[in-house]
Design goal:
alpha/beta, globular
Length: about 400
């Protein structure tokens, strides 16, 4: 009896082991197929960026907005954009990818399933030309189309292509030919901003892209952080470009006297209204900053190394009064992990992608809170607080 039971047990155990092994093989096969699909996504993901660039350059979001209804068919879009009808099958494939990526919506006609209508999502609404109600502080302009074009500009794509060569640069090569970023590696040693000085077309794309991002950012800050500006008398926008941010502040808070500081070629290229009441100063933030009660440093510090950030913030500290007199620096930047405490999901991925962009294009990077703290202390500040986290950006008040 014992022998028979033992044999039966072994047979049953063998069958279970075989079933378990088969299940593992099936799981392994499913994992392999998923891994292959994931590898395709990662390897070919740049086509999503190129498809987005294509849609922006063609003006697809605005064409959909101009349609009589909330959606537009491809023939309608082609006609609006003066694209030859022969290209319809190809544009359909571009749109199909962008629908899957969440840039557009789509649905088939109820009576004719071969006809597909495309609509806008919150993403593509940010790419529509023209003015938007509720955004008067930034002149009604919230379109991020130029931000897309700046990010996908050929010179920046070339910089990413140079990442390997830059990483393999030997120490002795760095001593004789210091190339501090992949952008410089790919462009004969010229930094992002140096290339902008000698390349008007790239400079225009870059500045308009940064201005578009800045306009949207300050609109959110002004809406969500009004107390930040209510008691200010004066403010200097450090690296303020064409003054869009300063104009938004003065439109919302007319009592705040604003000054814009930026490099001479940026100020020279900016279209500056003659009656906006803002003072424009061409200068170098590493050397000196016009004095005011508060300094705004928005999307600037992530372009620079820790040492360079300390220098800029030290100049900021020299330009403001004591804390008791309302002196402070307002920093608007990414704080890694602040948008997603579990450090996962689309918000955190956006933070990390911006960090990669900073690594490839500049000498800077996105920072965690403890890294910001170290920089503030090194620049001579006594305290700081994260005023508010707004999506992927944080508003930080830094006190002398």
């Amino acid at each position: 009896m014992y022998h028979r039971d033992s044999t039966e047990r072994k047979t049953a155990q063998g069958a279970m082991a075989q079933t378990t092994q088969t299940t593992k093989e099936l799981e392994s096969g499913a994992e392999l197929l998923q891994a292959q699909a994931d590898l395709w996504r990662h390897s070919l993901g740049f086509y999503t960026s190129m498809a987005l660039q294509c849609a922006v350059k063609l003006g697809v979001p605005s064409a959909i907005r101009r349609s009589h209804g909330a959606t537009a068919s491809l023939p309608d879009i082609l006609d609006d954009l003066s694209v030859p009808p022969s290209k319809l099958p190809f544009l359909r494939r571009v749109m199909r990818l962008l629908v899957t990526s969440g840039v557009f919506t789509s649905h088939a006609d109820e009576t004719d399933p071969s006809v597909v209508y495309y609509g806008l999502t919150p993403v593509s609404r940010l790419l529509v030309d023209g003015t938007v109600p509720g955004s008067e502080a930034v002149g009604g302009r919230t379109s991020q189309a130029s931000f897309v074009l700046a990010c996908t500009a050929r010179l920046n794509i070339d910089a990413a292509q140079g990442l390997v060569g830059w990483l393999q640069q030997k120490p002795e090569e760095e001593e004789t030919k210091p190339l501090f970023s992949p952008f410089a590696w790919a462009h004969d040693g010229a930094s992002l901003f140096e290339r902008g000085r000698v390349d008007p077309e790239f400079n225009g794309v870059l500045n308009e892209g940064m201005a578009a991002n800045s306009r949207l950012g300050i609109l959110t800050v002004l809406r969500e952080c009004r107390p930040l500006f209510e008691n200010l008398q004066s403010l200097t926008d450090c690296g303020g470009g064409d003054g869009a941010t300063a104009r938004a502040i003065t439109r919302t808070f007319p009592h705040v006297k604003c000054t814009v500081l930026d490099l001479p070629h940026v100020i020279a290229a900016a279209t500056v209204p003659s009656d906006d009441g803002i003072q424009y100063v061409a200068g170098d933030m590493f050397e000196s900053i016009p004095p005011s009660q508060a300094i705004l440093v928005k999307y600037v510090l992530h372009d620079w190394s820790d040492e360079q950030c300390v220098k800029v913030l030290a100049r900021c500290r020299e330009a403001i009064p004591c804390r008791e007199a309302g002196g402070k620096v307002i920093v608007v930047e990414v704080v890694l992990g602040a948008s997603s405490p579990c450090c996962a999901g689309p918000m955190h991925e956006a933070e990390l992608l911006m960090d990669m962009a900073m690594m490839c294009m500049t000498t800077g990077h996105e920072r965690e809170e403890h890294e910001w703290r170290s920089i503030f202390v090194a620049a001579g500040f006594s305290d700081y607080k994260i005023n508010k986290a707004l999506g992927v950006q944080c508003v930080i008040e830094v006190y002398p």
